[in-house]
Amino acid sequence: MIEHKSPKDIERMRVTGEFVGQVLAELGDLAAVGVNLLDLEHHARRRIKERGAESCYWDYAPSFGKGPFRNVVCLSVNDAVLHGLPHSYTLRDGDLLSMDMAVTIDGWSADSAHSVVVGTPAPEDLRLIEATEVALEAAIEVALPGNRLGDVSAAIGAVAAEYGYPVNLEFGGHGIGRTMHEDPHIPNDGRPGRGWKLRPGLTIAIEPWFAAGTNRIVFDPDGWTIRSADGSRTAHSEHTVAVTEAAPLVLTRRPAPAKAHQTAPQPPTPTR
Question: Which residues bind a divalent metal cation 2 (predicted)?
């Protein structure tokens, strides 16, 4: 069942969304060469505890996965894109890190994801991240009353096609509100004009993710971490969005980063 939230409900979700965006920004600033993934996990745990929030991931046990998820953030490196289990891995120069986090505060949930390059970025990795971010913004722009879910999905698929990336339809966006995963499911490609008609009060997590070379995925032995089947790099962007009468309202915007992770090194100034 799809629940449409009241303006007061959306304001409560905005509080949660601002916290999620803030912590993801902090994790992006902390991600650096030599940092262990478990350091990022423990930072997120501390922040959640300090805020009195609840992780939507801790004890999450869907039909896939091997046992309940016992972490508060998904950390996926390079060819891993979704549900990456934090483990003892030290980030290296050029790693592409995708971070995904969802929490509940006072009964209302928000979910967001962000990809960064650690250290020296490769142009092809920056392009892949850019594609997910452009696709996310394109999907947000059409999250308007009277449009349909197919318009949101098609907007993502169109950007993927423009950049030349294939699209996997097994995992995508979803409704969100009182719990992390609600109806409806939002594939990352679709046909315009099809599906549920968008109405004010609909709250959804839109999450384009692409692999550079394939739309096929494989699972690690841990039962959680999802990777590109061909080992190509991956990236993931996600925001929690509310459909309103005026314009789409992004509830999980991140503050400006304290340092730039995705700026290519500038060439040296010519000398005479």
Answer: 111, 174, 207, 238
Question: Could you tell me the CATH number of the domain that includes residue 95?
Answer: 3.90.230.10
Binding residue ranges for substrate: 83, 181
**236 three-class SS:** strand
Feature table: binding site: 83, 100, 111, 174, 181, 207, 238
Residue pLDDT, tens place only, 124-146: 999 999 999 999 999 999 999 99
Do 110 and 100 contact (CB within 8 A), yes or no? no
- Find residue 111's DSSP bridge partners: 102
Domain count of the fold of the chain: 1
H or E, element range at 105: strand 96-105
- pTM for the structure as a whole: 0.92
Feature table: binding site for a divalent metal cation: 100, 111, 174, 207, 238
